[in-house]
């Protein structure tokens, strides 16, 4: 195919028009990269350590029969909360009532005989003062009176035992709590060997038990012993759905023995478990915490501490560890290795490697090279967020969102 002269001319003009544009498109040397910097400042944080724990009822009772009898009635709703003293089971009473009546009659008979023996003893002792009295009669009547007194005491003890057994025909709640489903239904004969009829667990307050490694336990002791020990911390719970439980607890017990298979000690706290607002006491789940429930336990210091903090976005990591870029007096970016303490997603606590007041690059890090000049400017302030707590990957510790000191 041959090009016409006009077509060749057009192509030549297009080539000539492109060449000057390409040459003019070359940029002048760029200036220092712009970066956002923040000043390392001291801020207040609340130290928090997190552990996995389990809720446990303070009181737990296995209800059993104390006598052998027919079970006549179950007087509770399975799964409901009951009060101390509430009737739970009614056993057959007539045989035990009959035994009580018989023992009462026996006591009354022996008391009458004892009263007669006392009067005989008084007469014998009076006659002993006269010529008609004999010491032998006094001794005999005294022995008879003492024997009847002992029989009266024995009969009263039998009557008390019969009354106790009669009381065992009513099985009542020994504590406040929630009762399980019954294991034995009406019409069955129950006895002490039958086993558990139902379980009753207390609801308020609750224990929370969690294992703490010996290393973490020593750290907690060194951190809080001088500040009041158990009183220097409060317990908070994160529920299985991620919500923070609305009640605070206190540590009240530390096991004196280390578990050899896990090298941990068991710590126990007490936390309230009140009725939920608006929920009737007879509701299926009127309280937040359940016996046996898994939760995240947060040990939070009562008093905040002051630390050196920078934005989390300013921290970089490689095989050598964590580091940041600081801007020196000549506006040059210098790499600085640091050690981190407890941190949140937005704020990093620096325990070593950084001084208060130094300028740290938190924006534009992808354009920074060690030793190169940068153009620093104020970093964009982060949006306000609610206080939060996260677990530190190294120690299992965390902090709540810090506040700058005034």
Which labels suit this protein?
6-stranded mixed sheet; 4 helices; 26 strands; disordered C terminus
Strand content: 25-35%
Which class best fits the helix and strand makeup?
alpha+beta
* Largest sheet features: 7 strands, antiparallel
Order of helices and strands: HEEEEEEEHHEEEEEHEEEEEEEEEEEEEE
Radius of gyration, rounded? 42 Å
Oligomer: single chain
Number of strands: 26
Count of alpha and pi helical runs: 4
Q: What is the mean predicted local confidence, pLDDT? A: 82
Uncertain residue ranges? 21-25, 385-397, 399-406
* Shape descriptor: elongated
Helix content: 10-25%
- End-to-end Cα distance: 84 Å
Q: Could you describe the 3D structure shown?
A:
24% of the residues lie in helices and 32% in strands. It is of the alpha+beta class and 406 residues long. The strands form 5 sheets. Strands 3, 12, 13, 14, 15, 16 and 25 form a 7-stranded antiparallel β-sheet that branches. Strands 1, 18, 19, 20, 23 and 24 form a 6-stranded mixed β-sheet that branches. A 5-stranded antiparallel β-sheet has the order 21-22-17-2-26, with no helix packed on it. A hairpin with a 5-residue loop joins strand 19 (321-327) and strand 20 (333-337). The protein is elongated.
What is this structure's SSE topology?
Blueprint: H1 5-24, E1 34-39, E2 41-45, E3 47-57, E4 60-63, E5 69-74, E6 81-82, E7 87-91, H2 94-127, H3 135-167, E8 170-172, E9 177-179, E10 189-190, E11 198-201, E12 206-213, H4 214-224, E13 233-238, E14 250-254, E15 264-271, E16 294-301, E17 305-311, E18 316-318, E19 321-327, E20 333-337, E21 339-340, E22 347-352, E23 359-363, E24 375-378, E25 397-399, E26 403-404
């Amino acid at each position: 195919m041959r090009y016409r002269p006009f077509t060749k001319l057009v192509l030549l003009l297009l080539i000539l028009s492109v060449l000057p544009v390409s040459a003019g498109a070359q940029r002048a040397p760029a200036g220092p990269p712009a970066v956002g910097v923040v000043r390392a400042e001291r801020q207040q944080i609340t130290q928090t350590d997190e552990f996995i724990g389990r809720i446990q009822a303070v009181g737990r009772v296995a209800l059993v029969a104390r006598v052998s009898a027919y079970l006549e009635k179950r007087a509770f709703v399975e799964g409901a909360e009951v009060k101390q003293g509430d009737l739970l089971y009614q056993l057959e009473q007539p045989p035990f009532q009959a035994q009580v009546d018989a023992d009462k009659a026996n006591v009354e008979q022996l008391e009458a005989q004892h009263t007669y023996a006392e009067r005989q003893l008084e007469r014998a002792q009076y006659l002993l003062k006269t010529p008609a009295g004999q010491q032998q009669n006094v001794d005999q009547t005294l022995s008879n009176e003492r024997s009847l007194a002992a029989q009266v005491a024995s009969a009263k003890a039998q009557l008390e035992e019969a009354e106790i057994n009669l009381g065992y025909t009513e099985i009542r709640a020994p504590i406040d709590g929630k009762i399980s489903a019954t294991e034995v239904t009406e019409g069955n004969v129950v006895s002490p060997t039958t086993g558990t009829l139902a379980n009753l667990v207390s609801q308020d307050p609750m224990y929370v038990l969690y294992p703490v490694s010996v290393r973490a336990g020593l750290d907690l002791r060194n951190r809080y012993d001088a500040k009041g020990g158990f009183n220097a911390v409060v317990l908070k719970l994160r529920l299985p759905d991620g919500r923070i439980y609305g009640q605070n607890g206190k540590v009240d017990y530390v096991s004196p023995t280390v578990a050899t298979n896990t090298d941990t000690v068991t710590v126990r706290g007490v936390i309230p478990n009140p009725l939920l607002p608006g929920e009737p006491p007879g509701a299926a789940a009127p309280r937040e915490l359940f016996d046996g429930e898994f939760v995240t336990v947060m040990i939070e210091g009562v008093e905040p501490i002051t630390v050196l903090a920078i934005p989390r976005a300013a921290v970089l990591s490689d095989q050598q560890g964590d580091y940041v870029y600081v801007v020196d007096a000549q506006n040059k970016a210098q790499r600085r290795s640091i050690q981190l303490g407890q941190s949140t997603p937005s704020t990093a606590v620096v325990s070593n490697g950084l001084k208060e007041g130094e300028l740290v690059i938190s924006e534009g890090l992808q354009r920074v090279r060690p030793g190169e000049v940068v153009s620093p400017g104020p970093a964009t302030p982060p949006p306000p967020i609610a206080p939060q707590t996260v677990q530190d990957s190294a120690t299992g510790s965390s902090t709540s969102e810090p506040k700058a000191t005034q």
